[in-house]
Amino acid sequence: MRCSNCGEPIEEGRLFCLNCGQEVQWVPDYDSFGDYMVQEKLKKEKEQAEAAAAKKRAAIAAENRRRKKAKKKRTILVSIAGVLVLVAAGLFIKLGMDKKNYNDFDYQIRMADTAFSNHKYEESYKFVERAVSLDDSDIDAKLLLAQVQVKLDKTDAAIKTLQDIISQEPDNQSAYNQLIKIYMENEQPEEVKSLLDGCDNDEILKKFSAYISKNPVFSLPEGSYDEPKTLSLYAKDDEDKIYYTTDGTDPTTSSTLYTDNITLEEGQTTIKAVTINKNGISSDIVSNTYTIAYEAPDPPQISPSSGTFTTDMDTHIYIIVPEGCRAYYAFDKKPTIADEQYEADKPVKMLEGTHTFYAILVDEHNKVSSPGSAIYKLTDAK
Asked: What is the CA radius of gyration of the chain?
């Protein structure tokens, strides 16, 4: 028999459909205690049927939820798989592009320039270093590399980069400009001098003439002189300072600052001088040697000249003494400054007999002349 409500098969003896809970009429109704028992049984079966139906519905609902969850999980997994495929494809494409860009000089230098403009110096350094490795001959790339190195306090590396540029392109003003700026900021004026000393490009030297110190000028040619001399030193610019030494050592800013003329005395003196300009850059050291060797005075003139005299004649001996000199005399020997000094108002008297009169001159520099002499023969007039 089947249920009149849902069509499910019904076992014989059951009073309710286990599927939908519909009551099954097997026999006609009648009122009796037996009918009460039947009713109780039907009620119990109905409750069981309803519980079974509820359990079945719960099982069906649970199964539906499981299937729905499983379907959702599969959908998520499929989506994730799709995303992973897309990511993998993107990574593959990106790796391909990165590899291409890594070996593309234009790309590397463009990225370096952009990063530098945005003050991202570490990033810029990575790109420009790669660009230079791809094309070591590109001067603009090296100039940018030097700028980035300065920003990252890689001063020594920047100096080497700029030196390489100048070696590669000796007339590159930008490289000179950057390098001089680094030297000046690091208080290395001697490096600026060395850099410009090695440059033979007139345009470069003219452009950076403010960093070139001209040699000091000496007013007196070096050589030997027979009298004291006064030496003057001149600088090209009034702001330049001249330092000098007289002991043969090289002058520095710790040496004597030139402010007035230098007097050259007897003997040999070597003057070394250097100019320091307003930027603290020195010129070459100029050295002149002067020898002051005073000439001894000529032998003195003696009056009268040699001859024979008698006591009734004027027997005084006179020495002609030039201005600035003094005279010494002696008889029969060559005099020294330890002998008698001649006084103009006290002429020397001849000695009786035959004697040789000697005289010398000593000038203001204590130079002694050769002796002058005269032979006198003095006899008695009787």
From this structure: 62
DSSP 26: S
DSSP line for 216-279? PEESS-SEEESS-EEE-EE-SSTT-EEEEESBSSPP-TTSEEP-S-EEE-SEEEEEEEEEE-TT
Q: CA dist 42 to 3, 103, 157, Å?
A: 15, 89, 102
SS3 category, 121: helix
Asked if residue 153 lies in contact with residue 180, where contact means CB atoms within 8 angstroms, the answer is: no
Partners of 377 in the beta sheet?
A: 308, 354
DSSP category for residue 333: S
For 81-113, write each residue's pLDDT tens digit.
667 766 665 655 455 556 678 999 999 999 999
What angle (nearest 5°) sits at the alpha carbon of residue 328, between those of residues 327 and 329? 125
Give CA separation, 381 vs 137, 308, 311, 314, in Å: 112, 12, 5, 12
Quickly list H helices, the chain.
Answer: 33-102, 105-117, 121-134, 139-151, 155-168, 173-185, 189-197, 202-207
Tell me how far apart the alpha carbons of residues 145 and 126 are, in angstroms, rounded to a whole number: 10
Are the beta carbons of 148 and 112 closer than 8 angstroms? Answer: yes
Query: Taking the model in full, what pTM does it have?
Result: 0.61
Ramachandran bin of 119, using left for φ above 0, alpha for ψ from -120 to 50, beta for the remaining angles: left
* 346, 317 Cβ separation under 8 angstroms: no
φ, ψ for residue 374, nearest 5 deg: -150, 145
pLDDT in tens, 313-333: 999 999 999 999 999 999 999
Give residue for tokens 């035959």: 354
Report pLDDT digits (tens) over 40-68: 777 777 777 777 777 877 778 778 888 88
